[in-house]
Specification:
Number of helices: 12
Low-confidence stretches: 389-399
Strand order of the largest sheet: 11-6-1-2-3-19
CATH class of the domain at 89-164: Alpha Beta
Helix content: 25-40%
Shape: globular
Radius of gyration: 22 Å
Largest sheet: 6 strands, mixed
């Protein structure tokens, strides 16, 4: 392994409720990205997207990274880590500054100041800002400006979407990664990462809702006019479906998960009436034969509930009619038969399943909704490397917070 190549590597680490997934990529020819290593490990240290057991989480991170390193034949030291969980909040804010240049020409520094002004919101002490995402700029009275640098004006406004999270929850993810012997280059909101991997530009322009259904959480992001306008994380996911099956069919949780993956269908109407499945029993009793429709009748209400809660969340923010291009479902649970069809019935919009696109190398290996966040984290990292200009990109936490994170991680390593 050449030292130069190691420096160019970008690593995405999706620390999820049911699995930890690592994706290693390097810049490919023609400015693309080549995935060169993928690893995943079962995760037992998280609940609803939040770390509840550091040791288990560290173990899973080590396993996933080791698997990806072995496949890629390289060693990695830094990662882009995904964060989710019910503690995440998103809100829209506005920043206004006077254009400072002598020629009244908007500069990158003005954009930076406007974004900082939008960031100046009252955040409780136990929360921190994870992202400040510029949506649109206004130069004097001219709105809808995407790239204000170089324009003439007296006053510059920015509308931005601000994502905040609980300091301790974010810190626990960082600490887990540090204890696994890695540094965190940035923490990234998971639906933002998934959107990088599975959404098309024209969808983002028209208006699209991304729903990433993971094990413990369902992540939601609404895009329109090419920018993000709403984010939400619902503490419901595939684990709840598994639990419903285990209780409803009186079968062990591991078998319930297996039944869900092999025979699960989110829309009972799609299941032939005569189809039967073998259901393992608890306590050493004999397995029973049941109609597959009964399994589907347990799954459908829970998936319907998830989509109904998403619709309610969007309506609460006044975005119920914003998704002109429709809905994209991704994440492990979206692989289940009938999920897009059920989503179409709930939202009354066109729905498609989102798979990671636009990467080379092992692109075929990661062409599954399961890897949406992992691949998205790598794409996000590549974009940060290529364009660290102010305002053009997602802005991470403030420098003081970064220093605090680094110190906490460093102290965590010592003690």
């Amino acid at each position: 392994m050449t030292r130069n190549r190691a420096k160019d590597l970008i690593v995405g680490l999706d620390v999820g409720t049911t699995k930890v997934c690592a994706v290693i990529a390097e810049p490919g020819p023609g400015g693309g990205l080549d995935v060169i290593g993928v690893g995943s490990a079962a995760s037992r240290g998280l609940r609803k997207g939040v770390v509840v057991n550091i040791d288990f989480t560290v173990e899973a991170i080590k396993q996933a990274i080791a698997e990806a390193e072995q496949m890629a034949g390289v060693e990695v030291s830094a990662v882009y880590a995904g964060v989710a969980g019910g503690h995440i909040r998103g809100l829209n804010s506005r920043g206004v500054v006077a254009v400072s240049g002598r020629e009244r020409e908007v500069t990158a520094a003005d954009v930076e100041r406007a974004v900082e002004a939008a960031r100046a919101i009252n955040v409780p002490q136990d929360r921190e800002i994870i992202h400040v995402l510029p949506q649109t700029f206004v130069v004097d009275d001219q709105d809808g400006v995407r790239e204000p640098v170089g324009m003439s004006g007296v006053r510059l406004e920015v509308e931005a979407h601000i994502v905040t999270g609980a300091v301790t929850s974010v810190q626990n993810v960082i600490r887990s990664v540090n204890r696994a012997g890695l540094t965190v280059q940035d923490v990234v909101l998971e639906p933002l990462a998934s959107a990088e991997a599975v959404l098309f530009l024209d969808e983002k322009e028209l208006g699209v809702v991304l729903i990433d259904i993971g094990g413990g959480t369902t992540d939601v992001a609404l895009f329109r006019d090419g920018a993000i306008w709403h984010t939400a994380i619902l503490p419901l996911g595939g684990d709840h479906i598994t639990n419903d099956i285990a209780v409803g069919l009186r079968t062990p949780a591991a078998d319930a998960e297996d039944l869900k993956r092999r025979y699960g269908c989110a829309l009972t109407a799609l299941v032939p009436a005569e189809e039967t499945i073998d259901v393992p029993s608890v306590g050493g009793r004999k397995p029973r034969q049941l109609s597959r429709q009964i399994l589907s009748e347990i799954i459908q209400p829970r998936v319907e509930e998830i989509f109904t809660l998403v619709a309610r969340e969007l309506a609460k923010g006044g975005f119920q009619d914003a998704a002109t291009a429709g809905v994209v479902v991704t994440g492990g649970t979206s692989i289940m038969e009938g999920v897009p069809e059920l989503a179409e019935a709930v939202f009354d919009l066109p729905v498609r399943r989102g798979v990671p696109d636009g990467v080379g190398g092992l692109g075929d290996v990661v062409k599954s909704p399961v890897y949406a966040t992992g691949v998205g984290l790598v794409m996000y990292g590549a974009r940060r490397h290529a364009a660290p200009s102010p305002g053009s990109n997602v802005t991470g936490g403030n420098p003081i917070m970064r220093l605090v994170r680094w110190l906490a991680g460093w102290l965590g390593e010592i003690f």
